[in-house]
Amino acid sequence: MEELCDFGATPLSDRLGTAPDSVTPAARVPLTLVRCGACCLPQLSVDVAPEALYDADYPYFSSVSSELNRHFAGLAQEIITRHGIGPGSCVLEAASNDGYLLRHFSAAGAEVTGYDPARGPAEAAIAGGIPTRIAFFGRETARAFVAERGPVDLFLANNVLAHVPDLQGFVAGIESVLRPGGVAVLEIPYLVDLVERRAFDTIYHQHLCYFPLTSLERLFHRAGLGLARVTRHAVHGGSLRLELVRGARTSAEVAALIRDEVAAGQADAGFVARIGEAARLVRQDLRDLVAGIRSEGGTIWAYGAAAKGNTLLSVCGLGRDSIEAVADLNPHKHGRYMPGSDLRIAPPEEMVAACPSHVLVLAWNLRDEILGQLSPLRAGGTRFILPIPHPEVVS
């Protein structure tokens, strides 16, 4: 393993506090990006036990975001059309959260099952009529499912592969749960977009690995899965949508993309290490910007109590001395505290009533949705700080 960049010891991003950090300090864990010299996979130097991350207090509910709902509604319709998913089809999703994606396949007549270890979102899915098993998906889970129900026509996993400590076991599970001719569709944040967009805040303890296509192809080939199709999408700041089939070779189209990635040096250590310098530059510019606003008597709220927001606040050293509070749509987060920064999480209505001069958009990947939600503030003259790829103020 070669160290690429070190962000220091930071709080676990989704472990929201029940009290300010000054009262009950959050546990801090090293956040260091390293790279395997054998398979070229960038990853964190320390794995936090998944049971500690995805417990009953896990606060992420995918259906809160209208922009993500639109994205995944489009994904579902594309899959249903391309692969003929409907009555008689069997669909399984790993990390199904609150059922936001499976409901589209259920509505099309397919038999659906979700797996998610986080009890809160899983119970919300069950309450919404989506059969969900509160468990991690992996090799043994897949074998048990096939023994009970038989193989599936479609396997789904969106924004989850980076969270998996046993990558080979997870991918082996995908291979074993698919019927012949079945397809797996995964969306994964793309390393190249992370680096080129300077999105260092996407690095946090839930994201154990950061994938170039080069490493993905090796991982899937080893499990007997072929990369049939790859497309790029803007969701989550830049993602790959992968289609996998059993026993197939990587398609010529995908092989060409991998050659391009290698030729551009985008799987090299030097390319990935640029994210450390990006973090340093964003930190300095954002701190200067915030200090200037405060010195002129301005008030700043933040918006979006997302995991990436905790990395940004921690790396940039921003907290209650410069930001009033954080607003978020998710009611499961209200009254909690961002770990390490002491920032209280409040409903958006409270922020609108406070009418700050500026709002720091932590969930910048949803900027259009957020700017639309906060139109009353915009009309009143509040300005918005977008921190990535470089801090800028927009109205």
Compact overview of the structure:
The protein has 395 residues and is α/β, with parallel strands linked by helices. It folds into 2 domains: 2-39 and 271-394, 3-Layer(aba) Sandwich (Rossmann fold), CATH 3.40.50.720; 46-249, Vaccinia Virus protein VP39 (Rossmann fold, 3-Layer(aba) Sandwich).
Distance between the termini: 44 Å
Radius of gyration: 21 Å
State the fourth-level CATH superfamily of the largest domain.
Vaccinia Virus protein VP39
Q: Per DSSP, what share of the residues sits in E-state strands of 2 or more residues? A: 15-25%
Number of helices: 14
| Second CATH tier, the architecture of the largest domain | 3-Layer(aba) Sandwich
Structural class: alpha/beta
The ordered string of helix (H) and strand (E) elements is EEEHHEHEHEHEHEHHEEHHEHEEHEHHEE
Just give the CATH class of the largest domain: Alpha Beta
Widest sheet, order of strands: 6-5-4-7-8-10-9
Shape: globular
